[in-house]
Amino acid sequence: MGKDSTEQTSSRVDFSRQLLVAMPGMVSGSLADTVIFMCEHNEQGALGVVINRPTDMTVGDLLQRIDLELSLEIGLTQEAPVFFGGPVQTDRGFVLHAPARAYKSSINLGQMALTTSRDVLQEVAQGTGPEDVLITLGYAGWGPGQLEDEMAQNAWLHVQANHDILFATPAEERYSAALAQLGIDPIMLTGSAGRA
């Protein structure tokens, strides 16, 4: 019995640093049609941020709310969108950024990091922050075993995360770009099975 449980533990797939793509008709509610960058996935659960759902709020709006002024010398514009990161803690900001730098509250993700502290936004506003940033409000979270159950039900496809999809591809093209890495055309996916 001990051997079987060890094999199950070691065979658990870690989806950290991958993209999850919602399958049509399998994921509903606020996460339908989303692409999620997975930041952490372990025995305690999983955490990721939606990367393809811009909100009406802009970076300029967000910085103004926290009394920061955006430098005009940087590539990030005041009109850049703040994204809906997921349904958990939607009043809290999360900054996915590259390259990875240590701020007061950062999770190192290899070539990039996820930061929740104000200091990264201060540097972004001053033009001294990371080159590539994606700012979200909220995150997507799963409890222990919940993501594994959803994966077993084919609710999500997964693919290796790609810097261009995260930071360079327009938000409305990120879903199809992630699927293209799997050789899938979004038109081929349907929300329900057809009947002959």
Order of helices and strands: HEEEEHEEEEHEHEHH
CATH fold-level label: VC0467-like
The CATH superfamily label reads: VC0467-like
**Span from first to last CA?**
46 Å
- The average pLDDT score comes to 87
State which percent range the strand residues make up: 25-35%
Largest sheet: 10 strands, mixed
Radius of gyration, Cα only, in angstroms? 18 Å
- Uncertain residue ranges: 1-10, 192-196
Q: How many structural domains? A: 1
How many helical elements?
A: 6
Q: Work out the oligomeric state of the chains in this entry.
A: single chain
Please name the CATH architecture.
Answer: 3-Layer(aba) Sandwich
Please state the overall shape, judged from the principal axes of the Cα atoms. globular
CATH class: Alpha Beta
Structural class: alpha+beta
Percent in helix = 10-25%
Count of individual beta strands: 10
